[in-house]
Design a protein that fits this description.
582 residues; alpha+beta; Rossmann fold; Dna Ligase, domain 1; D-amino Acid Aminotransferase, Chain A, domain 1; 4 domains; five-stranded parallel sheet; 16 helices; 26% helix
Length: 582
Amino acid sequence: MLRKVLIANRGEIAVRVIRACRELGIETVAVYSELDHGALHVRLADEAYALGGQTAAESYLNTTKILEIIERSGADAVHPGYGFFSENADFARAITDRGVVFIGPPPPAIEVMGDKISARLAAEAVGVHGVPGTTDFITDPAQVRSFGAEHGYPVAIKAAYGGGGRGMKVVNSDAEIEAAIDSSQREALAYFGRDEIYMERYLTKPRHVEVQVLADSHGNCVYLGTRDCSAQRRHQKLIEEAPAPGIAPETLAAMGEAAVKVALGCGYVNAGTVEFLYEDGAFYYLEMNTRLQVEHPVTELVTGVDLVEQQIRVASGEPLPFSQDDIEINGHAIEVRINAEDPAEGAFLPSPGPITTLTVPSGFGTRWDGGYTAGDEISQYYDNLVGKLVCWGRDRDRAIARTLRALDEMEITGVATTIPADRAILAHPDFAANLHSTKWVEEVLDLTGIGGKVGAPPESETPLVRRAAEVEVDGKRFEVAMWVPDPSASAGARVRRSAAGGGAGLGGGNGQVAVPMQGTIVKVLVEVGDTVEVGASLVVLEAMKMENNITADVAGTITEVRVTTGDSVGGGDVVVVIEPAA
């Protein structure tokens, strides 16, 4: 068994791995950026080391610094979590070349499946086929025009070295190609460190179904049922459930067997997920994620298998303790991702800031996997996942009812969250009847009037609050806790602004176009003197690794452009001024 594990990640997944290690008697090492010096994962770990920097590139993607900390801490293994370096073969190889265990698949498997082109070829080699697509990177818009002419629109442009919908753009006509390529490459580079992209046919009403696989180094591989992840916005998941409902058992079994073929075909070891698109009774290979998925808890609840524990045991060289015949699916589980994001009537705007209240639900069949506590801050520089509410029921109807009850009990203030949208999804008859698809949230679900409320912090009834003072000695973190007078007791509640509605900012129809959240301007689309219509895109704002088009709130002429590419802006900052048309 491993002795000391460094978790090369942050937030909810770092907390999840730390807890699993503690249960196994394994010491843990946390790493943290300047903004995360007091984060929950740092507080829970046995040791913590400073990475420096604020952005992901400066901290959690700093390979040199992480390798230094591995050496200093004496860690004999690294768990990458998800995101960041979890699907980076170079990072995994840098770890294993030092004789340190990488808790994940071998680098060659990451390379094959991390490149979506070679992954398609590898799947086809074992008889598992995807939707029509290319096996070449996009280097010229003409490639997309040619593909669209042959296969028809819409076409999906996707990051070759990523997943989770990051960098994915849907093109509906020739006119959208250049902008989609540009945006896809920017997002892919920001989130995965590489900007290669490819394309495939975009199905009109598919369901997103994935299969959890687990393989050891002794040649054993099993699948642990399916998950449905069709409730999405911006190609990123909001709600996941296990098993995938409303699909014939023989089809689910065929998906599982196909997933095992793909895993064995690329020499896979450890936990991974093979994703499919399902439409009209047929399924198509989509991609393989060579890491632990965000939604792994729903599989744990219906199978009774602790996936993180098995990851660690497999990485320690142990064989799987079960075979395919031992896997049983019991009941139904639903996971709701609680993001610091304002539903904003369907616009889904990032909402960074401090969490003033965080009260999580409990009760039978109710689980909370979180990365924050009250008093922590959600930064614009990282993913906006606050945590995951996971509920189990003896059947799907009970699981839905239990999840709705738990959402009613949950209270988060200080930041806007996706909870109102989550309730709308779960309570909708289309969801209950399995009529939703990956497009359903954006094209069918009516979110009118939902969002925009941040909530006020509660009045303090105690004059003292716990404060932690951190001390770094040669980059290693130590913490001393103390109780001090609460400065907010007399200063009053802090008030934050949160914009509802779409990307038109806070101008209110007067031409003073402001951004609804803090972030970075990644593209300016207009110049002084340009004429624009209502809804025209003016600038592109990146916040929490998501691009948001800030649009015109009136028709008229641009008289001021107050930002340039690379500028940091705060919520409510006016970025463009429009003289309304007469």
